[in-house]
Amino acid sequence: xxxxxxxPEQLRAHVLQLGEKHPxxxxxxxxxxxxxxxxxxxxxxxxxxxxSRVELEVDRNVLELLTLLxxxxxTDRIFFADVWQPQEIQHGLILDRLQQDLxxxxxxxxxxxxxxxxxxLGALSHLRPVQEVARLLYYLTGAATExxxxxxxxxxxxxxxxMDERAVARTVVAPIKQQEPGHFAYYRLAATQxxxxxxxRPWQLxxxxxxxxxxxxxxxxxxxxxxxxxxxxxxxxxxxDDLEGFARDISRVxxxxxxxxxxxxxxxxxxxxxxxxxxxxxxERHPAGAGGLTTA
Length: 296
Ligand SMILES: [Fe+2]
Ligand SMILES: [Fe+2]
Fold this sequence. Notes:
- By secondary structure, the chain is mainly alpha-helical.
- The chain has a single domain (8-288), classed as Ribonucleotide Reductase, subunit A, CATH 1.10.620.20.
- Helices cover 69% and strands 0% of the residues.
- It contains 12 helices and no strands.
- The N and C termini lie far apart (41 Å).
- Bound molecules: fe (ii) ion (FE2) (2 copies).
- Residues 55, 88, 91, 149, 176, 180 line the site of one fe (ii) ion.
């Protein structure tokens, strides 16, 4: 599919506009009134807990980014330091406060420990051509992650509205979900600009495909057991009814940019396989408890 050409100036303008339009959400601006804390905890507790952890892990994501991209450019730096991190950390703090209001323990995010895989790629990234590959992978990961967040917050918001928990739906989840599409757009534009500018040679693209297939991970899945936690989130939100549709949606950017030559590829197999594995891990852990929204 032909896309309009994205220039570095447009990318920079997008970032500056995001920062102006979406200041970080303050804790004081949200109304955490919950009418039925037990009901919300039992229905959406694990979703709120998972999202708060992942949002708070933004601080580790920044360390990973600096490891992968030692020569990060000015626009990327403005995005992650002035726009993205300040927004995401507030999402995490607000959701963490909410889950404690609901009687759940505080989040335990990993904000410091970078995986060996990323450290290895980071070491190789001192070679400029490898760093360019890492940069594309970073954008593709960001696009898939942010798109997942948009879909998850949409479902969470609908579910809370159905429970008549309007304060939390409208003053907590709604403002958070309004900030995610701008993050997604940044990664999509940045990856598109990189591909359109011909920054990568064929061997670099081949390497990017191999690394993407081998290193793909669902957002927030870094330790044993977290795949089942992710499976629980998608099951609770009813996303497991159409995992293929979800996979197609979150992988759209990489499908168009990385796998464009692969005719007929609807969904990268590694994305769908990771989702199916996560749901299976959850069902194995909770054989009888795999109820989604329909049982709420
Ligand atoms: Fe967020
Ligand atoms: Fe985000």
